[in-house]
Amino acid sequence: MRLLVVLMSIAMPLVAWLSQRGAFGPTQDVVSDAFPTLLVAAGYAFSIWGLIFALDVAYAIWQATGERRRDPTLARVAPLAAAGFALTAVWMPLFSMGLFGLCVLVIFAALACTARAAVVLSRDAAPVARQRLWAWLPLSLHAGWLSLAAFLNVAQTIVAYRMLPVDDMLGWSAVLFVLAAVVLLVLNARMRGNVAYVAAAVWGLAAVVVRQSQGTLDGSQVAAGIALVIAVVLIGQTLWLRFARPRVVEAAHTP
């Protein structure tokens, strides 16, 4: 299983490189631009994939070598990481080929795997200690970005298949924003305020604010405001979970 994690971590940047060269059809930015939504982020935001891929490969090699091979927590996380990486790699050609419905299933499955791995690592007794940082950081970033990207994928699927009105997208887009916020807040709570997870999500939300504040679609300005509120609430929750909540819990157990 440890070797499979390594292979799947390498598969992601390799498939991304092929995808950007049109090996599977139009590039992802071309496909995305063809179906504009109120959830789409500014183009620069997607550069985070370079960091995520690099850290995922580093984690994969690290967990497969040395004494880490006998670490029970890393053994528990390995199948989740391998599945999350494989699903992320599969999503890219599917998106280029315009198989949006299948893309939604794949990206949410990838999110489920990476988020579960991040939860396990975050709830470890020392989630950011040296022996965990190499796993906790990349998987948390990966899960954080997918938590937002999954709902962007849903929005583009709705537009591509015209499942809901495309000339007035604010109503159903607001619902997707709320659902994304629920996922982000619930997962962050389960991870007890995961800074890396939140950083990836806030990076994406900030890029949504940038894109939509300059957008021409009806409701773009409102969408930018919603994304900003979610980012602020998510940061506030993280600060409370990491600083205020431990003191509250400690006080409650003080005789």
From TrEMBL:
* Keyword Transmembrane helix in record: yes
List the keywords (alphabetical): Membrane, Transmembrane, Transmembrane helix
Superkingdom: Bacteria
The reply to whether Transmembrane helix figures as a keyword in the UniProt entry is yes
Which residue windows are transmembrane per the record?
A: 37-62, 74-92, 98-121, 133-154, 169-187, 194-210, 222-241
What protein is this chain from?
A: Tryptophan-rich sensory protein
Origin organism of this chain?
Answer: Cognatilysobacter bugurensis
